[in-house]
Design goal:
The protein starts with 16 loop residues before the first helix and ends with a helix. The protein contains twelve helices and no strands. 19% of the residues are buried. With 329 residues, it is an all-alpha fold. Helix 5 packs antiparallel against helix 11 and helix 8 runs antiparallel to helix 10. Among the domains are: 37 residues; 175 residues, no CATH class. It is globular, with a radius of gyration of 32 Å.
């Protein structure tokens, strides 16, 4: 086998000025590290040029680089959905709803970025109020439509019990419905005082103010782990390096979240109580309107957090709406 004859090394006369300067620096042993760094930077620049050329080739259709292809990622996500088939049947609907909501969020952000959708100020706050309309309707009127754990969480945050809510708000409507269906063995329950089942007995304005402040403590118990644990897990270096600024930002975020949550539950209670006081009836409109007005409570919270809260509520509102539609049709 014939070996290729290697060309002779270039003479100094054939070299460029930059090559000669590199050789002189290396020969003198004067700046070896600088020469090596300069050589590495030249290699990186050459690699960038190569990758740019490959991207151009991929765009031309002569070479497909799958890591730069958005359609490939979309198909991968679609095929990944097959994994739901091996999950528990009771969890499939929940996971599918959460995935659909996240997908809709990405689509909406993309359409807004490219100018197909207008940018609406406080849109997430408005959407938060809209998605809470069926949630609050279910909570007050038909709790069987929502998950039991979520119902209990709302009860604990609002300092309400299921028994008080039933006898103070739902019982009269339940008896009326049964009497319309033909039952004659029931006696109509008189309308309860407007705050019965929602607030404790007492002077209503004072009770509302007291409940708002005690709601701060209930919200603190819920949100303290939510804000503190991620710092210990993901931002421990920042905490150790600058503890004052890190803790100050955490306390600020925690305070805003507590203001949001106590205002959230106060908005619901005040709206329902006011409607019952004015009309003397337990109408489904009151909790539905209360859900819409909860969007005002998000003004205390950071915009990024409002988006996450809204996306958390959408699947729950979708489940309730689906159950209501199934009951009608």
């Amino acid at each position: 086998m014939m070996l290729e004859e290697r060309p002779p090394p270039p003479s100094r006369d054939d070299m460029s000025d930059s090559d000669l300067s590199d050789i002189d620096s290396i020969d003198s042993g004067d700046d070896l590290e600088q020469a090596r760094t300069r050589t590495d930077s030249d290699l990186k620049a050459a690699n960038r040029d190569i990758f740019a050329d490959e991207s151009l080739v991929a765009d031309a259709g002569t070479c497909r680089l799958w890591e730069h292809d958005g359609w490939n990622r979309a198909f991968a996500g679609a095929f990944a959905a097959i994994a739901l088939a091996v999950d528990e049947k009771s969890r499939r609907q929940t996971i599918a709803l959460y995935s659909a909501v996240r997908g809709a969020e990405v689509l909406a952000v993309s359409l807004t970025r490219y100018g197909y959708l207008p940018t609406i100020p406080k849109a997430t706050s408005i959407l938060f109020g809209i998605v809470n309309m069926p949630i609050m309707y279910s909570f007050v009127c038909e709790p069987a439509l929502m998950s039991r754990s979520y119902y209990k969480w709302i009860l604990s945050m609002g300092n309400i019990t299921d028994e008080r809510l039933f006898w103070g708000v739902r019982a009269r409507n339940y008896v009326l419905d049964q009497m319309k269906k033909g039952r004659t063995d029931l006696q109509l329950i008189p309308f309860q005082p407007s705050q019965r089942g929602i607030y404790d007995d007492g002077i209503l304005p004072l009770v509302i103010v007291k409940d708002w402040f005690t709601g701060l403590l209930r919200a603190f118990k819920i949100y303290a782990p939510v804000h503190f644990l991620p710092i210990l897990i993901f931002k421990l270096k920042s905490l150790l390096k600058s503890p004052k600024s890190t803790l100050r930002r955490m306390c600020m975020s925690l305070g805003l979240s507590c203001l949001f949550l106590t205002s959230y539950q106060a908005t619901i209670k005040v709206t329902i109580t006011s409607g019952r006081t004015m009309y003397g009836e337990d109408l489904w409109v009151f909790p539905t309107l209360a859900g819409l007005l909860t969007g005002l409570s998000t003004l205390f919270e950071k915009s990024s957090r409002v988006s996450e809260l809204m996306l958390y509520c959408v699947p729950r509102a979708a489940e309730i709406t689906f159950e209501v539609q199934c009951g009608y049709f």
